[in-house]
Structure formats: structure tokens, C-alpha cells
Amino acid sequence: MKACKEIGGYQPVTWLAGRDKSRYPQVYRPHPLESSNYEAVDRMIGVANQKWQESRLIARPAVQFRGFFPEVNNQNLTEIAIKIKETYNDYLKLVRSLEDLKNRHPELREPYIEVTSTKSQRTLCLTRLDRFGT
Fold first, then answer.
1. Contacts with 50 (C-beta within 8 Å, 6 or more apart), sequence order
2. What is the 3-class SS of 43-72, one letter each residue?
3. What is the residue-averaged pLDDT of the chain?
4. pTM for this one?
């Protein structure tokens, strides 16, 4: 009973909602963590937010840093880099096309069996097979 009372008395904290990766998928946070209580963790968040305000990371275009890197005069290295970039772009296109296919055909999101009637030639997709184990 004591454990149930403790679980039932849980108070949600605002800084956990701010860490939701589905709502904020970016690598660097564009805003500080929210803090509304006066607990020890909230005090630490306050200090972290203060330091974050002093040295905030701002996204900048990569072209801006081109001057930091010397030009590559080796043709062989340039060709290798171009091949790597093309391979990466091909994989990226493939992933996007597979995601589009998955969105257009929901039955492909999970394992399924396609059953065709011998009489009517109608096809039926049986999905959610993972519920039944192997």
C-alpha cells in the first residue's frame, strides 16, 4: 500500500517534458530546459540554463567554415571522396524510397502473409503475425 501511495503521489516535472526527443529531435537545444520547482535537480537545471545562456550554440551553414580547411590537390583523394558521397546519397535515396513505400503500403510495416483464394483469385494480407511467435 505504501508503494502505491508513493506512485500515486508522483508529481510530473517540467524538465522531463522538455527532453522529449519526438518533439525536439535536434542535436542541440534551441531553448533552455524548463524548471518550475525548487528541488535540488531544478536548482542544477537553473545553473545549467544560466551557463547555457552565456554560451548558446547557434546553427550556422557549413560553407562558413570552408576557410578553415585547406583545398585538396590530390585527384585520387577527390575521386574517392566523390564516390563516398555518391554512395551515401544513393543509400539515402534508397532509405527515403523504402519509407515512402512503407507509408503507401501499411501492410509492409510488419511481417505478413499473402493468401490468395483459388476460386475468386482475391488476395488477403494477414498481418500482426509477431503476436503468435514463431
1. none
2. HHHHHHHHHHHHCCCCCCCHHHHHHHCCCC
3. 77
4. 0.37
